[in-house]
Design brief:
The chain has 355 residues and is mostly helical. The chain has helices spanning 2-20, 28-41, 50-58, 64-70, 73-84, 90-110, 114-123, 135-146, 148-152, 156-169, 179-182, 189-198, 203-213, 218-222, 230-243, 254-273, 279-288, 291-301, 305-328. Helix content is 65%, strand content 0%. Keywords: Membrane, Transferase, Transmembrane, Transmembrane helix.
């Protein structure tokens, strides 16, 4: 775990250097994300499905064609090209670059506080470290995240193109198509309270809607794969409860309202579908991801914002450690620890997986 702690400290110091502009002409924010990219791109056997991707690219998978046919077009082509050039790590370098570059661009352009948004991205269990495990979906998610610029500027065609590309990485991105219309959705406090509470009692209703509106995706619910991230869901439900007190603080701010809307829609999806395995949180990600931008907005509203920022730094670090600790509790294998670098590793040895 030490290398992760060191990683977090280095990123934090780079962010602080960027905030105070310690060296004129040096973009420390960019350096922070370059360091994050390197950490992600050169990992080996870090992430729950790393071994699966590695074996596919190496041609060692028992059901190679069947596995590849499960992948959406761009993800499949990236695997095939990595295999063709005989450079297995290429898949992880490209996916890491896409995720980190787009995340950096969005936070740089949209966030009210670059440091806070980056710490939320790093610290919260469903973002940065999760990108190690759900690689294909996170590539799609990063494109959806980037599409915010087209949502806020009301460029429907560009937005649809972005969603179209995201779907070619992971088909679940199709659920994000509603984001364009959520932007102009004006809800009152009572609506958010109903959505928040309704998430606890709407499992069968949401299953019914998926069955009739998106039947192709029903298999993700019926398979009931994985767990619904109960500890993480509880964390976000607690956050959702406190944010209820701030939903009407910027009534005329469309961007702020969009972040609020997406957060509660995502929380509703996650809460409702949690009984059906990890399909709930995976679907919710396309909405919850905007919490990365919402957090600084909420902090700005609070009078003791300076103190709250300091607390956020500490809590962010604790969440980061909490994420790693959660990984050690995985009944199959720890997806993150130990961290290994691909060019310093025996590539015949992978973490054992408990059936």
């Amino acid at each position: 775990m030490f290398i992760y702690i060191l990683f977090f400290i280095v990123v934090f110091l780079l962010l602080e250097a960027g905030k105070y502009k310690i060296v004129e002409g040096v973009n420390f924010y960019w350096l922070a994300y370059f360091f994050i990219f390197i950490f992600s791109a050169f990992r080996f056997d870090v992430g729950y499905d790393f071994e699966m991707y590695y074996n596919l690219i190496e041609g060692k998978s028992r059901w190679l064609e069947a596995q590849l046919n499960r992948f959406d077009f761009l993800s499949r082509e990236l695997v095939i090209f990595s295999s063709y050039i005989k450079f297995t790590q290429f898949f992880f370098i490209v996916s890491s670059f896409l995720i980190m570059f787009l995340t950096y661009k969005v936070i740089k352009r949209e966030s009210k506080d670059f440091v806070i948004s980056t710490l939320v991205f790093l610290s919260f269990p469903i973002f940065f470290l999760n990108s190690f495990s759900i690689v294909r979906q996170y590539m799609a998610l990063s494109i959806v995240f980037y599409s915010l610029r087209y949502i806020s500027s009301r460029k429907l065609l560009y937005f649809l193109i972005a969603i179209f590309v995201a779907v070619f990485f992971h088909k679940t991105a199709i659920v994000a198509i509603v984001l364009y219309w959520i932007y102009n959705l004006k809800l009152k406090n009572i609506h958010f309270i109903i959505i928040f509470i309704g998430g606890f009692f709407s499992s069968k209703l949401l299953y019914f809607l998926v069955e009739y509106l998106l039947p192709h995706y029903l298999k993700y619910l019926d398979e009931n794969v994985g767990v619904g991230g109960d500890k993480l869901l509880l964390l976000f439900q607690i956050i959702g409860f406190f944010i209820l007190f701030f939903v009407d603080k910027k009534k005329e701010d469309l961007v702020y309202n969009f972040y609020i809307n997406t957060f509660y829609v995502g929380l509703f999806i996650w809460s409702s579908l949690a009984p059906y395995g990890h399909a709930g949180y995976r679907g919710a990600l396309y909405f919850i991801v905007f919490f990365i931008l919402l957090a600084p907005e909420v902090i700005q509203i609070i009078k003791q914002r300076r103190l709250l920022k300091q607390i956020t730094y500490i809590v962010g670090f604790c969440f980061f450690i909490f994420t790693l600790w959660l990984g050690t509790k995985n009944i199959h294998k720890d997806p993150n620890i130990p961290y290994r670098v691909f060019f310093l590793t025996d590539k015949t040895h992978f973490k054992s997986v408990t059936p």
